[in-house]
């Protein structure tokens, strides 16, 4: 439940539907993936057929669900949305697949978390538009082949490398989603502000964008918190100062670090002289679980070049010292 967490919370889900771009032109950034998809979809439309299966890889909140909806819209096709963890048994998948209509888009989020038997059923469905439904148990079990209408699978995963190669190979196209540049996030903020009827200045949008960790979902969430502040503590207009003051209240700093991120850096600098220090020791020092530090705080700190994972332990980079307003130690001579 972090303000700067990339995974959707309940409030995100409630408002995101209204903020989603509806077509490829409205979709901001990701120019490479956008152009590639544009070609794939235009070619499928010209052939009057169904688009190839698409794999989208990238961190949460970068727009994978949004793109899958855009794919359906561009193909004038309905869409069904499910996720790997929701498919426990091959039978769950069989019932979804057998109810698809011709050309339908099936969005499978977190596809790397599907069960093994379901995954194997998916291979055949993707390749031959066919599944074998097993009826009965033990020696008497029989496989009843079932023809499926052609459909487009859009799989989403945090990293394409997590997928077994046979599954990866069955996608006609893989789009790698990148973190967004600040200028792109400013456009996201302006667009969302328009839809939410919030007045935002250019500097206000820039201030929110620079704290959004390259992620549109976070930009939209910070915008909502800043809007609250602007309404209650200011005149409703989001300018640079209002955005900065609001996000100070929520402890999101100029670079998008929150309390936990800064606690990790402070411990590293103040208690361990900048490291190297082992992960477990560091976790104890900030009073968090090892996994929390490793999975929640570190990825962004590493991405920002503030922390390095070395064989001898975690090390604060000179940028980390400077970010906390300190002077980095001189590198040891020799
Ligand atoms: P993911 O499926 O990768 O977790 P989503 O597609 O749910 O991410 O996107 C999260 C939110 O961010 C959506 O509500 C959408 O409004 C916004 N968003 C994502 N990508 C873009 C974009 N390129 N342009 C504008 N808004 C975006």
Automatic annotation (TrEMBL):
Residues binding Mg(2+): 65
Main location as per UniProt: cytoplasm
Coiled coil: none
Region Small ATPAse domain (RuvB-S), residue ranges: 181-251
Compartment(s) where it occurs, according to its Swiss-Prot or TrEMBL record: Cytoplasm
Region named Head domain (RuvB-H): 254-334
Binding-site residues for DNA, renumbered to this chain: 290, 309, 314
Reaction(s) this enzyme catalyzes, per UniProt: ATP + H2O = ADP + phosphate + H(+)
Region Large ATPase domain (RuvB-L): start-end pairs: 1-180
InterPro entries linked to this entry: AAA+_ATPase (IPR003593), AAA_lid_4 (IPR041445), DNA_helicase_Holl-junc_RuvB (IPR004605), P-loop_NTPase (IPR027417), RuvB-like_N (IPR008824), RuvB_wg_C (IPR008823), WH-like_DNA-bd_sf (IPR036388), WH_DNA-bd_sf (IPR036390)
AAA+ ATPase domain segment(s): 50-183
Residues at which ATP binds: 19-20, 61, 64-66, 127-129, 170, 180, 217
Keywords linked to the UniProt accession: ATP-binding, Cytoplasm, DNA damage, DNA recombination, DNA repair, DNA-binding, Helicase, Hydrolase, Nucleotide-binding
GO cellular component terms attached to this protein's record: cytoplasm; Holliday junction resolvase complex
Known EC number: 3.6.4.-
Chain residue ranges for the region called Disordered: 323-334
GO-annotated molecular function: ATP binding; ATP hydrolysis activity; four-way junction DNA binding; four-way junction helicase activity
Example of a GO biological process term: DNA repair
Function description: The RuvA-RuvB-RuvC complex processes Holliday junction (HJ) DNA during genetic recombination and DNA repair, while the RuvA-RuvB complex plays an important role in the rescue of blocked DNA replication forks via replication fork reversal (RFR). RuvA specifically binds to HJ cruciform DNA, conferring on it an open structure. The RuvB hexamer acts as an ATP-dependent pump, pulling dsDNA into and through the RuvAB complex. RuvB forms 2 homohexamers on either side of HJ DNA bound by 1 or 2 RuvA tetramers; 4 subunits per hexamer contact DNA at a time.
Quaternary structure note: Homohexamer. Forms an RuvA(8)-RuvB(12)-Holliday junction (HJ) complex. HJ DNA is sandwiched between 2 RuvA tetramers; dsDNA enters through RuvA and exits via RuvB. An RuvB hexamer assembles on each DNA strand where it exits the tetramer. Each RuvB hexamer is contacted by two RuvA subunits (via domain III) on 2 adjacent RuvB subunits; this complex drives branch migration. In the full resolvosome a probable DNA-RuvA(4)-RuvB(12)-RuvC(2) complex forms which resolves the HJ.
Note on domains (UniProt): Has 3 domains, the large (RuvB-L) and small ATPase (RuvB-S) domains and the C-terminal head (RuvB-H) domain. The head domain binds DNA, while the ATPase domains jointly bind ATP, ADP or are empty depending on the state of the subunit in the translocation cycle. During a single DNA translocation step the structure of each domain remains the same, but their relative positions change.
Alphabetized PANTHER family for the sequence: HOLLIDAY JUNCTION BRANCH MIGRATION COMPLEX SUBUNIT RUVB, PTHR42848
Entry's family note: Belongs to the RuvB family.
Protein name per the record: Holliday junction branch migration complex subunit RuvB
Species this chain originates from: Streptomyces sedi
Gene that encodes the chain: ruvB
């Amino acid at each position: 439940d972090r303000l700067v967490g990339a995974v959707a919370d309940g409030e995100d889900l409630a408002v995101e539907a209204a903020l989603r771009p509806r077509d490829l032109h409205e979709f901001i950034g990701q120019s490479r993936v956008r152009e590639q998809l544009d070609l794939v979809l235009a070619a499928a439309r010209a052939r009057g057929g169904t688009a190839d299966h698409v794999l989208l890889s990238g961190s949460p909140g970068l727009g994978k669900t949004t793109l899958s909806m855009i794919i359906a819209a561009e193909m004038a096709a309905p869409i069904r949305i499910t996720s790997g963890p929701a498919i426990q048994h091959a039978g769950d998948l069989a019932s979804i697949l057998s109810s698809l209509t011709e050309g339908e888009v099936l969005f499978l989020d977190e596809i790397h978390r599907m069960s093994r038997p379901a995954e194997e059923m998916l291979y055949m469905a993707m390749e031959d538009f066919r599944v074998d439904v097993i009826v009965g148990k033990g020696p008497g079990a029989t496989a009843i082949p079932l023809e499926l209408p052609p459909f487009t699978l859009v799989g989403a995963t945090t990293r394409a490398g997590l997928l077994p190669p046979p599954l990866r190979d069955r996608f006609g196209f893989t789009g790698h989603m990148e973190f967004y540049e600040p200028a792109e996030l400013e456009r996201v903020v302006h667009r969302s502000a328009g839809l939410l009827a919030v007045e935002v200045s250019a500097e206000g949008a820039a201030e929110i964008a620079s704290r959004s960790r390259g992620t549109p979902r976070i930009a939209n969430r910070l915008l909502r918190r800043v809007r609250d502040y602007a309404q209650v503590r200011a005149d409703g207009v989001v300018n640079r100062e209002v955005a900065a003051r609001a996000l100070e209240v929520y402890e999101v700093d100029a670079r998008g670090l929150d309390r936990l991120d800064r606690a990790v850096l402070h411990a590293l600098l103040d208690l361990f002289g900048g490291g190297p220090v082992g992960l477990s020791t560091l976790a104890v020092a900030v009073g968090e679980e090892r996994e929390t530090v490793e999975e929640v705080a570190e990825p962004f700190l590493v991405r920002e070049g503030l922390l390095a994972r070395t064989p001898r332990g975690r090390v604060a980079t000179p940028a980390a010292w400077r970010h906390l307003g300190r002077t980095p130690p001189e590198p040891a001579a020799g």
